[in-house]
Amino acid sequence: MACGGGGRGGTGWSSLPADLLLAVFALLPSDADRSRFRAVCAAWAAAAAAWRPGPWLVGSRTDRAGRGGGAVSSFWLSPTPGAGLLPFAANVPAGLEYLSSSRGYLALSDPTASPKAIVLVNPVTGRRVRLPPIAFFKRWLDVTTVVLSADPAAAAEWAAVAVGFPTTCLAYYSSTTGAWARLDFRAQGYAGVEHYNGRFYVAFRSQICVCEVVGGDATAVIPLERADGADDGDGSDDEKLLPPCGRRVVETHLVDCGGQLLLVSVHDDVVYNSDDDMAGLAVDDEGISYAGDARAVEVHRVEWLGDGAVRLVRVADLGWNALFLGRNRAFALSPAEFPACRANCIYLVDRQGHPDGVVRVVDMESQWARREETICPDDGPRGSSSAGWARRGWFFPNY
């Protein structure tokens, strides 16, 4: 459909009122339709820009034996307050399993292929970018995170960092070389990665490192110097930043939130109070919370000092922001971007690798309060033991 032309009055498709175009756009049944809508002409694309997409929850299913089945399920966080997660059919190629997401792309792989490789797929536009195999990863099944520096469709040059578990090294990909480079980095757990202000940063617990890039090639992962100082009395040395006795860090994330870099640590062994308002969300059958399954979240802002060192400052309030955390990706949204998300809350994909679908909403004001939703990977009967989640995580579409 072209935007030109016009009737006797000289008007055409491009002259339709913006509010009418937006109303039509909101009624389109699929992302493919929305993508085609935006491509009609500049006027239609401008009208659609006012529409606020919502985050998706994407996961790969497992079979009865616990092996990846190469099938992807998708849910989107409804813009209707209280509606929770709703299943829908995303445009994901059949036979691929979910690994991670970044910049509007899903990082997928073919579980039957050898050697295994990452395929970047934009489920909105259908664009695919095939990356070469990572030969030096010993255990491919444990690849957990793939982070892009930019949209491959829009940037002349871009890069990617891939992380496995346990973290014995990182993989750095440059579009200019078309190859993966090995970067030594060891952590006994899940490392967080973020591309912030033109550089890749890696964190595990309270250690923050930067990927040193020379001439387009990454050469090393360099720890940043930590400066001690008074910052609200929370303590900036490693011992004070580690969780108290009986709690351990199970996930570490770096998140670009409103232009600030946040270090987010997820701890276990905290009992939540189940008396919080859970209206509008589907909860566990008996509404029971178990201490071993619970999580607490600590947030620190990375403060950049003049000499290149950093200091961690505790953040007790996210303001109008909300964080979406999964072991394979994390990002921040605000109600201005997506009105249905709860400000000053953390949407936590819990118990990664377990055959269930628990999503917790943790309020930063009182982490003893929570709301919870349990979903099934195939939207089948709740409590089904025939299939579970191999991996799952948050994804934000790029239109």
From TrEMBL:
Segments forming domain KIB1-4 beta-propeller: 94-354
Keyword annotations of the record: Signal
InterPro entries per UniProt: F-box-like_dom_sf (IPR036047), KIB1-4_b-propeller (IPR005174)
Name the UniProt record assigns to this protein: KIB1-4 beta-propeller domain-containing protein
Any one Pfam family match given in the protein's UniProt record, by short name: Beta-prop_KIB1-4
Domain of life: Eukaryota
Signal peptide annotation: 1-32
